[in-house]
Automatic annotation (TrEMBL), chain A:
Protein name stated in the entry: Amino acid ABC transporter permease
InterPro entries per record: AA_ABC_transptr_permease_3TM, ArtM/GltK/GlnP/TcyL/YhdX-like, MetI-like, MetI-like_sf
Family, per entry: Belongs to the binding-protein-dependent transport system permease family. HisMQ subfamily.
Signal sequence, renumbered to the chain: none
Keyword Transport included in the entry's annotation: yes
Domain annotation ABC transmembrane type-1: ranges: 24-212
Primary localisation category: membrane
Spans traversing the lipid bilayer: 20-50, 62-83, 193-214
Subcellular location: Cell inner membrane; Cell membrane
Length: 224, 245
């Protein structure tokens, strides 16, 4: 009974639930913004890595390698606490989005590159032989086929970004985790933390299940 | 009369390995040229240079309908005029048969959808695939897919059609339907360059047969000259080896 009162204290959960929901909203705002910006940035990085002129592919590769190596928490702290020393000052929200986007774009770029490279060479040749411009070849022929390949790993990346939003609490962003720790301090009871954990799981479990199903489906009807 | 395709001193190497040793070849408008020769002799490389799917040496020159085939802006113009049919079809699997045929006229020529669709359906009727227009390529037989690929190339109203062993990937019972479409096409005045192992087709349809070996044109002439009266030993032994099979 004691355990239930400590970890699943229903009255406390009900009291703090609105706070947790407002935190969830912030978490979603950070996550969705970073995911969308990361997708755009990642597609751009993948295309210039594959087809950019001169040193551009190499520079793109350097970017991708660096931002896949750096721990997100370190990057976030640099963006929020170090950049102000050179006069660049971001709000907690922007700092979190910038750090998440920089990293997500690097992972997304590798996913898109693998997807594009998985398209048979004959598709590129047929497009070129028909006279399609590079842009039309990509938009009408290559990317629509690559999308099918990249959706499972991209969804996986979305899950990671949404999870990593929790790090934003270290730059005082009132996200789900931050609200939960504050509510815990106020109520002197860890129930809000358990509530937050449950909300994370409820949010991400469906995505995890979707990835599993997609992987199974795309694995099955692979084209010859 | 100036030739429609003028190939001069065409050289192509992969590293130290020379695939084409300075080929000179003129092809007249409306001519049907069949290219034969052993595996690895450079037949595919030769025709893939014509629309620059393969880059070639700067000392070489290819001119198609007055336009020099080089890197840069003019290449798009050449490719719009030169259709190509591949051994492995290379249809777009995510588009229906109809959309496969409509895509390039809309994107490259700026055709209106209704106009592109009408023309695509006409072409599909011509190659005998009209009933499959709404299907995806994966649902079609190899012979049907290759006929769609021919229609897709023809939709650009090319001056030249290049074929790289269009029937080599087909089950034997489907070879005939594709060759029939090509024979009909040859009668319409389109310039055709066909790499093929189908000696019967070459003999019946070609205006000129070119025999390649080791990256060179060894011998060329009318089908009668090449098949009935080859002058070169290498041509003779090649023909013997393919006709024995
Ligand atoms: N990308 C490449 N890299 C290196 N060598 C190549 C490449 N493509 C072709 N070759 C070589 O160039 C030579 C000519 O090839 P090509 O495909 O033009 O021959 P082909 O006459 O079409 O033969 P086949 O009848 O087998 O199709 C071959 O020896 C081949 O191995
Ligand atoms: Mg070949």
């Amino acid at each position: 009974m004691n355990l239930v009162n400590t970890f699943f204290n229903i009255p406390i959960l009900i009291d703090t639930f609105p706070l947790l929901l407002s935190g969830l909203l912030v978490t979603l705002e950070i996550g969705v913004t970073s995911i969308i910006a990361g997708l755009a940035g990642g597609l751009f990085l993948a295309l210039v890595r594959l087809y950019g002129p001169g040193p551009v592919p190499f520079l793109s590769k350097i970017y991708i390698d660096i931002f896949r190596s750096i721990p997100l928490l370190v990057l976030l702290i640099i963006v929020y606490y170090a950049l102000p020393f050179v006069g660049i000052r971001f709000s907690p929200f922007v700092s979190a989005v910038v750090a998440l986007t920089l990293v997500s774009a690097a992972y997304t770029a590798e996913i898109f590159r693998a997807g594009i490279e998985a398209i048979p060479h004959g598709q590129f040749e047929a497009s070129q032989a028909l006279g399609l411009s590079g842009r039309h070849m990509m938009v009408d022929v290559i990317l629509p086929q690559a999308i099918k390949i990249v959706i499972p790993p991209l969804t996986n990346n979305c899950i990671n970004v949404l999870k990593d939003t929790a790090l934003a609490s270290v730059v005082a962003m009132p996200d789900l985790l931050k609200q939960a720790t504050q509510a815990q301090a106020l109520a002197a009871n860890p129930t809000p933390l358990i509530g937050a954990a449950l909300i994370y799981v409820a949010l991400l479990w469906p995505l995890v299940a979707i990835v599993a199903r997609l992987e199974k489906r795309f694995g099955k009807d692979k084209r010859p | 009369m100036t030739p429609l395709i003028k190939i001069s001193n065409l050289k192509k190497a992969y590293g130290a390995f020379t695939v084409l040793h300075g080929i000179d070849l003129d092809i007249a408008e409306g001519e049907v040229v069949c290219v034969i020769g052993p595996s690895g002799s450079g037949k595919s490389t030769l025709i893939r240079c014509i629309n620059r799917l393969e880059a070639f040496s700067d000392e070489s020159s290819i001119v198609v309908d007055g336009v020099t085939v080089g890197p840069g802006k003019a290449l798009a113009k050449v490719r719009a005029e030169v259709g190509m049919v591949f051994q492995s079809f290379n249809l777009f699997p995510h588009l229906t048969v109809l959309k496969n045929v409509m895509l390039a006229p809309m994107r490259v020529r700026g055709a209106k959808p209704a106009e592109a669709e009408r023309k695509a359906r006409d072409l599909l009727t011509r190659v005998g695939i009209a009933a499959q227009a709404e299907k995806y390529p994966g649902k079609l037989s190899g012979g049907q897919q290759q006929r769609v690929a021919i229609a897709r190339a023809l939709a650009m109203e090319p001056k030249v059609m290049l074929f790289d062993e269009p029937t080599s990937a087909l089950d034997p019972e489907m070879v005939g339907e594709v060759l029939d479409v090509m024979k009909t096409l040859a009668g319409t005045g389109v310039t055709m360059v066909v790499v093929t192992h189908e000696m019967g087709f070459a003999r019946q349809v070609a205006d000129r047969v070119i025999f390649m070996d080791g990256g060179r044109i060894v011998e060329q002439g009318t089908p009668a000259e090449i098949f009935d009266n080859p002058r070169e030993d290498r041509t003779r032994s090649f023909l013997r080896s393919v006709l024995e099979h």
